[in-house]
Design a protein that fits this description.
CATH architecture of the largest domain: 3-Layer(aba) Sandwich
Structural class: alpha/beta
Length: 485
């Protein structure tokens, strides 16, 4: 992401915008007296019978007299991050759809409002001015070369906005790739290149090593695939100023057929995105490394496929997990909790100060929340409060669910230590998290994120693509909150 950012302290005028083909005006509640192209705005408002204040709900885009394009949006100082991001995304998308080389963002209002507007608009521009993977015909890459910010200037070089945009973009790129282009083998190679680029420690637990360790829950899911290329990948980023150790864990099922409990076509469509949790964890790691977050981060990625075949695990199997617990397999499409269980055990054995995992884990979370929120559960109520605050601050909203012990009664098995799930499926997002908690060794603070908002048609918050990269901004904010605590 090489877009050059130029800051200009002075407010824009029509002369200073000469040569810029696309302009975004980010305005306060009270209309500025000297507003470039104000006549065009007035005419457009009059034509659509709108008032200036309505730009705080519906941004407006119009052609300027000389053929250039402009968008206007009003940001109220009381808006939450998600609301600001949403309005900015709606205002900026028509401009970026035309693939401009240069975009001018003009911010107005008091210092606090301009500071927020500058940061948010820059992030929204950078995260959407990228070419995501597409195999439709020959598409010329025309990246945004220059972003000119009028009305704000500070020593801040928007490093955090860049880092966050890079992390989100990586998560979306990986998630969008078709399943034949992101097999476990290809995914592992890509991760290895990232580790070399950022100087992370890199370790892989392949199928032979996992069998030797006794990680039967992970192996059960992966054994149905050929080649046997699944692995748990362990990456470590360490800041020289690290005073806390955290673990990021991500579900990386590159394709999920459902196994012997084969999904119908409708529900198998899009199952190459079942690795989104691992992509989010990687995106957070990239952003944290670029910002230089003062901590040690161990990132554990459970990379596999859930295929059907002679060797695939099946209903009724009894599996022994890495921690020695026996699991009664009830449904082979509940594979995410199987691969994560052994991965969580490995992560907890490093004794981190905090664990945060991401997974597109259950359909019931989508039923509970839809696609606008993701759900969280965890073993510390105070952490869930921090998590909700982190989501609000990042513009990626999360909602907390119960985590009471009596839910464990549903997972009692007559033939093993625990059931993998129930066939009834009620409250499966809670049962899945209770299941996962049994594989964390030691009393490690932990939050689980069930990514029901990994995909939202038309975009969500700051992001205009259907695949949202949700979790990168939230995760980075959550790690910050833990560090500051």
């Amino acid at each position: 992401m090489s877009t050059r950012i130029t800051q200009v302290a002075a407010q824009a005028d029509e002369a200073s915008l000469q040569g810029v083909t696309h302009v975004l005006f980010v305005l306060p509640n009270v209309r500025p007296t000297a507003l470039p192209f104000g006549e065009t705005l007035d005419a457009r408002l009059k034509r659509s019978r709108q008032e200036y204040a309505e730009l705080g709900k519906s941004p407006l885009t119009a052609d300027l007299p000389d053929g250039r394009a402009a968008s206007w949006v009003v940001l109220d100082s009381k808006l939450e991050t998600f609301q600001r991001h949403t309005l900015l995304r709606k205002a900026i998308k028509p401009l970026l759809d035309e693939k401009p080389q240069t975009l001018a963002i003009c911010v107005y209002g008091d210092n606090d409002l301009r500071a927020k507007a500058a940061q948010d608009a820059t992030y929204v521009a950078l995260v959407n001015a990228v070419d995501l993977p597409s195999r439709k015909g020959k598409q010329e890459s025309r990246p945004l070369e220059t972003l000119i910010l009028h009305g704000w200037s500070s020593p801040d070089d928007f490093a955090e906005a860049r880092a966050l945009a890079r992390g989100n973009t990586l998560a979306r790129e990986l998630t969008i790739l078709p399943p034949n282009e992101l097999t476990p083998t290809l995914y592992r190679k890509r991760i290895e290149r990232l580790a070399e680029q950022y100087g992370w420690q890199h370790e892989e637990y392949d199928m032979d090593k996992l069998r030797e360790l006794g990680a039967g829950a992970f192996v059960a899911v992966a054994q149905g695939s050929q080649p046997q290329d699944a692995a748990i990948v362990h990456l470590t980023y360490t800041s020289q100023r690290a005073d806390k150790s955290v673990a990021l864990i991500g579900k990386g099922i590159c394709f999920d057929t459902g196994g012997h409990n084969l999904k119908p076509a409708r529900w198998m469509q899009g199952m190459h995105e079942d690795m989104n949790g691992s992509a989010v964890a990687l995106g957070i790691l990239v952003a944290a490394a670029e910002i230089g977050l003062p901590m040690k981060i161990d990132c554990w990625l459970a990379i596999a496929q859930n295929h059907i075949g002679p060797g695939a695990y099946k209903q009724g199997d009894i599996i022994t997990a890495l921690n020695g617990m026996t699991i009664e397999v009830v449904h082979t499409d509940a594979e995410g909790r199987m691969v994560l269980s052994d991965t969580l055990t490995l992560a907890s054995r490093e004794k981190p100060d905090f664990m945060l995992d991401f997974a597109t884990l259950t359909g019931s979370m989508g039923e509970a929340l839809g696609e606008r929120y993701s759900g969280i559960l965890g073993n510390r109520p105070e952490l869930l409060c921090k998590a909700i605050g982190a989501g609000r601050a990042a513009g990626e909203r999360v909602a907390a669910f119960p985590f009471d012990e009596d839910y464990d009664e549903e997972l009692e098995s007559s033939v093993a230590d625990i059931k993998q799930c129930t066939l009834e499926g009620g409250a499966d997002h809670i049962l899945a998290t209770r299941f996962l908690s049994r594989f964390i060794e030691g009393d490690v603070p932990w939050v689980h994120v069930d990514l029901s908002s990994s995909n939202h048609k038309g975009g969500l918050g700051a992001v205009a693509s259907d695949v949202t990269g949700f979790g990168v901004g939230y995760g980075l904010q959550m790690l910050r909150a833990v560090t500051e605590a």
